[in-house]
Design a protein that fits this description.
The structure holds 3 protein chains of 3 kinds. By secondary structure, chain A is mostly helical. Chain A contains 7 helices and no strands. Chain A has one domain. The longest helix of chain A has 29 residues, at about 180-210. Chain A is globular. The N and C termini of chain A lie far apart (about 60 Å). By secondary structure, chain B is mainly α. Chain B has one domain (about 1-310). Chain B contains 12 helices and no strands. Chain C is globular and about 70 Å long. Chain C has 19 helices and 2 strands. Classes of the chains: A mainly alpha, B mainly alpha, C mainly alpha. Chains in contact: A-B, A-C. At the A-C interface, helix 5, helix 6 and helix 7 of A face helix 5, helix 6, helix 8 and helix 9 of C.
């Protein structure tokens, strides 16, 4: 698979995959919430571009709708909402201590290798391009989880959650040229509702523990209850 | 004939470097709502400095006096390696990209020594900072350049650029990373914001300016010129490696003229981008520079990895 | 197809209607009526399927076969009986001042929202829509878990939201891989339809499907509450309102398992190996044993029974994993009896906590002396869930054991051990609560135990003799899933 022999569409998809993977790593190492949200918005923008390119080159009109939905939800609405939340909670000057940064980054890198390992059997049936796209999406999903584990702020958890969605969305666009319309609309609806619910939850969490630090929510456990 | 063009190209490099610095200044002034100086102001400054008699400290050794000449000539030699308006020139065929990095290191070595030579506090501080930064920047830069050379299977810049040109427009993930890495390194190496601020002499933050604080007259002119040349070199590297279109592949007058126009256009755009970035970004603390360069190295590494994973043939 | 549309539109109208007027008096009764109409629609549907076999809607959006139709009826039935229970329960909670008008609106509206999501998961023919429905079920119930707005309930809801959201994202990745395998052999828009996939299962790429199934099992397994993905389950069950615990345990877990089994059918068709079954057996057995062991450590009565749910879901997953006609039949039966019994238990537990004013088991004492019907209800429910004959749980567990002994003899021992541990774990807690002296000032509450009586009677009936039409029904479903008939 020499990249020169691929068509332009594939080249764009591969570049986008690389960049989306990069944004996931950037988020992983980000201690400031506003920047985290900014990088998340960039990732959303990359997804929008990928979708638009896919829609154009495959001449698939419903992908344009997906692109617009992604733009509205993941680039504008959710980052806007989270940003407001950060400013409201006065967290924009806080830098979160992120534990062992090197270990987290190495963990992220090994997750990426792991996703290649998991998906490698696929290569028998398809071009390596698809393997790359799928492996990058899976690693975005896994890196989103790692982000949730390594950060303590509820807002960072939401960013991780949504970036998991981003990874899935990327897989859907690239590997399968978009899911059927009804499914895609359903997923977009679920994401929207989830975003609104997260907003409600921030309010509740803040009024119950006076902070958005998830580590302070430790009332429920199996021991000593 | 070929040698003539090679000499012409190097002369162009040397001659145009102050102009680029002037243009950058103009861009920044407009962006910051200030009255810009003339485009030719850097030339006037150089001229004025050349006419002044240099003042040299009594403590200074011979090294202090020789250093500006060594730095300037090393930088000019580096410039001969980099294709500006045409590829396949004899000068660039004789040396590859590692030699170029070597010239930079050579110049930096003497600059740092000169900073230490006089024994002032600032000079030593500047030298130590400069070495710290360059020790981190150099691997990142090599990593970025190697991404290119692995794609083209040669370390010769000129051949590599021809290779990229031959393949036409190929969007490579690795090049995207390498470009970002190279831009970050270029910003650090040429002492621009956010790593160093070329317009300030605030003692606690300066790096480049601290080393050359003791210089005056024509010595200062040479060092300033060399650093302008270095800025242009990095600009040309970014522009010609990643967007080589327009560069002359034959030595006809038409192609050469076209190549000159192309590189001028590319550099103008690059400096506008740099101007915007310098206006928007604040200078970072010295201790955060390592993070910044670490990130550049990471990008270079990612470029290399994505070359191997995503692009290499199996 | 009319009953399906009726079913979905009733629930949808319910969401809007209760969002507007969920705070009024008598609203609980209207909720009961809504659910009665749903049950009526599902029975209509069931008769149709029983007479005519599998129904596929004209646009192929809905598929009703003998497997899901019985789950649809079960869902509507438990939905109805729980709404009968929730009527006095929520009224009592409002009297205590735990709930405001706004939250009651939310509760009733989302009750219907949850039912809608469940019906959607069960009736749809599209694997993608199935995922959307499962996610929607999380979204509908997450605010109900935090309905009381205590710090504990908000924590539980957050945990539920995050864990299930992340978990189910894995299932979406699996679905994407499934779709990826499907578009290689079929056209795009129809490639996720289960009816198409099942028909062409043998052509699907086995490598891709194996990977997809792992993601599906992890994703939907989070919702089933499989160990080690079960952390949200006891919290969400214990902190939410009790009717919610009843439907979560009785319906949501079942439907997640339903999704896994649907996928297993595809994977088995494609790979012709036991890989999917072995995975399910492993996770199922682990959940069964861990659930049984954790029963002993509980101090909160609702957590106790949510661990019992984990244990039973583990057993069902195990049985589906074993495969074969007998095990599948047993798993289907167990799904039914567990749903009925567990929701009955949560209903009595709800009343018991209202009697005692706490969920801590060391504070709940003397139930039979205070209010005999609640005490006996809890006791009989526990006897039933622990697997005593002659209740239906005994029958299904016995069949699971039989099937295991047949296929994997050495796995019978851990199963027997687990049943024993669970039995001891339940009774050491229940016995002092039911018997024992009545604490000072403990008063009976207004309770409607009709759902409990109906559920337990049904379970008893299923234990004594499975009626002919039901057995026929189960064996049809078994034939569909396992490819061979048990009877």
């Amino acid at each position: 698979m020499n990249i020169e022999s691929q068509d332009l569409y594939t080249q764009i998809i591969l570049s986008m995959a690389a960049l989306v993977g990069l944004t996931s790593f950037l988020m992983l190492g980000q201690g400031r919430l506003l920047r985290l949200i900014f990088v998340f918005a960039i990732q959303g923008l990359l997804l929008t571009l990928t979708t638009a390119v896919a829609a154009y080159s495959l001449d698939n009109h419903h992908l344009y709708i997906s692109a617009v939905l992604t733009l509205a939800l993941k680039v504008i609405f959710i980052p806007w909402m989270l940003r407001n939340e950060v400013l409201k909670s006065n967290l924009h000057r806080d830098v979160e201590a992120l534990g062992n940064q090197t270990a987290i980054m190495l963990g992220g890198a090994s997750l990426m290798v792991f996703s290649y390992y998991v998906l490698h059997p696929i290569v028998q049936t398809t071009s390596p391009v698809m393997l790359n796209a799928l492996a990058v999406s899976l690693s975005v999903v896994l890196l989103g989880m790692l982000l949730m584990i390594s950060h303590k702020q509820a807002i960072a958890h939401v960013v991780g959650f949504m970036s998991i969605e981003n990874g899935l969305f990327f897989a859907a666009i690239v590997a399968t040229k978009g899911m059927p319309m009804v499914v895609e609309l359903g997923i977009a609806f679920d994401v929207l509702v989830a975003a609104v619910l997260f907003g409600i939850f921030f309010f509740h969490i803040r009024s119950s523990i006076d902070s958005l630090d998830v580590d302070l929510m430790n009332k429920l456990n199996e021991v000593d209850k | 004939m070929n040698w003539l063009i090679a000499i012409l190209q190097t002369t162009l490099f040397v001659a145009l470097a102050p102009l680029l610095a002037g243009w950058l200044k103009v861009c920044k002034c407009y962006l910051q709502n200030r009255q810009p100086p003339s485009l030719l102001q850097p030339y006037r400054d150089l001229l004025k400095l050349t006419n002044k008699q240099p003042v040299v400290s009594e403590q200074a050794s011979w090294l202090f006096i020789k250093a500006p000449y060594i730095i300037f000539s090393a930088t000019v030699l580096a410039a001969t390696v980099v294709p500006l308006i045409a590829v396949d020139l004899p000068t660039s065929a004789s040396a590859d990209v590692i030699v170029m990095v070597g010239f930079f290191a050579f110049a930096r070595f003497f600059l740092a020594l000169a900073g230490l030579d006089v024994g002032t506090a600032f000079g030593g501080m500047g030298s130590s900072r400069e070495m710290t930064i360059s020790s981190l920047a150099e691997p990142a830069m090599l990593m970025a350049i190697f991404t290119l050379t692995m794609t083209a299977s040669t370390t010769n810049l000129s051949l590599a650029i021809s290779h990229v040109l031959e393949q036409g427009l190929v969007l490579r993930p690795s090049f995207v990373f390498a470009l970002f890495a190279l831009i970050l390194v270029a910003v650090a190496e040429t002492g621009r914001i956010p790593v160093d601020n070329p317009t300030t002499h605030l003692e606690l933050t300066m790096i480049h300016e601290a080393m050359i604080l003791e210089y005056s007259g024509r010595h200062l002119a040479l060092i300033e010129w060399a650093s302008q040349l270095k800025l242009m070199l990095y600009g040309v590297l970014c522009a010609n490696i990643f967007f080589p279109w327009g560069i002359a592949q034959t030595f006809s007058l038409h192609d050469l003229g076209y190549g000159l126009l192309a590189i001028i256009g590319k550099l103008m755009v690059l400096s506008i981008i740099l101007g915007i970035a310098e206006t928007l970004v604040a200078k970072m603390r010295l201790f955060r520079v390592q993070e910044y360069l670490g990130f550049a190295y990471l990008l270079g590494l990612l470029g290399m990895l994505s070359h191997i994973i995503l692009e290499a043939s199996r | 197809m009319i009953p399906v549309y009726l079913l979905l539109s009733i629930a949808f109208v319910g969401i809007v209607f209760f969002a507007l007027s969920g705070h009024k008096a008598e609203i609980g009764k209207i909720n009961v009526w809504f659910n009665s109409v749903s049950l009526f629609a599902t029975i209509w549907l069931a008769i149709n399927v029983l007479n005519n076999g599998t129904i596929l809607s004209a646009d192929k959006a809905f598929l009703i076969d003998s497997f899901n139709v019985y789950l649809i009826v079960l869902t509507a039935f438990v939905g109805l009986t729980t709404s009968i229970f929730s009527n006095p329960y929520m009224a009592h909670e409002k009297e205590l001042g735990k709930l405001t008008d706004k939250r009651l609106k939310l509760y009733y509206s989302m009750y219907q929202g949850f039912m809608l999501a469940m019906y959607l998961v069960l009736t749809t023919n599209n694997m993608g829509v199935m995922w959307v429905g499962m996610e929607a079920a999380t979204l509908a119930t997450v605010l109900l878990v935090s309905l009381y707005r205590t710090p504990e309930s908000i924590e539980a809801a957050w945990k539920y939201f995050i864990l299930c959201g992340v978990g189910i994202a894995q299932a979406l990745f699996g679905t994407i891989l499934l779709y990826y395998a499907a578009v290689q052999i079929g056209d795009g828009e129809n490639a996720l339809l289960w009816s198409e996939l099942f028909q062409h299962a043998s052509q699907l790429n086995p490598e891709v499907l194996q990977i997809a199934f792992v993601f599906m099992l992890i994703g939907y397994g989070t919702k089933i509450g499989l160990v080690p993905l079960h952390n949200w389950l006891p919290d969400a069950h214990s902190e939410g309102p009790t009717p919610m615990s009843a439907v979560l345990s009785g319906l949501l877990l079942n439907d997640a398992l339903y999704a896994v089994v649907r996928n297993k059918m595809l994977v088995d068709g494609a790979t012709h190996s036991d890989m999917a079954g072995h995975l399910m057996m492993g996770f199922g057995l682990l959940s069964f044993l861990v659930g049984a062991l954790f029963l002993h450590r509980q101090k909160d009565i609702k957590r106790l029974f949510s661990y019992s749910s984990i244990e039973h879901m583990g057993l069902m997953t195990f049985a589906f994993g074993v495969g074969g006609a007998l095990a599948t039949f047993a798993a289907l039966l167990h799904m039914t009896v567990h749903s009925l019994t567990k929701s009955a238990i949560f209903v009595t537990v709800g009343h018991a906590t209202q009697v005692a004013g706490t969920q801590r088991m060391d504070k709940i004492r003397g139930l039979i002396k205070t209010q005999p019907k609640i005490g006996w209800g809890l006791l009989i429910g526990t006897i039933s869930i622990a697997g005593f004959p002659p209740f239906g749980v005994f029958t299904s567990e016995f069949l699971v054991l039989l099937a295991t002994m047949h296929s994997y003899p050495w796995l019978t021992l851990p199963l027997l051990l687990g049943i024993g541990i669970a039995f001891a774990g339940l009774f050491r807690h229940i016995q002092p609560m039911v018997y024992g002296e009545k604490p000072e000032g403990q008063q009976p509450v207004k309770a409607n135990l009709l759902p409990v009586i109906i559920h337990l009677a049904l379970v008893l009936w299923l234990g004594l003799a499975i009626p002919g039409f039901l057995a026929h029904w189960f064996s049809q479903a078994t034939f569909l899933i396992s490819g061979s008939s048990p009877l």
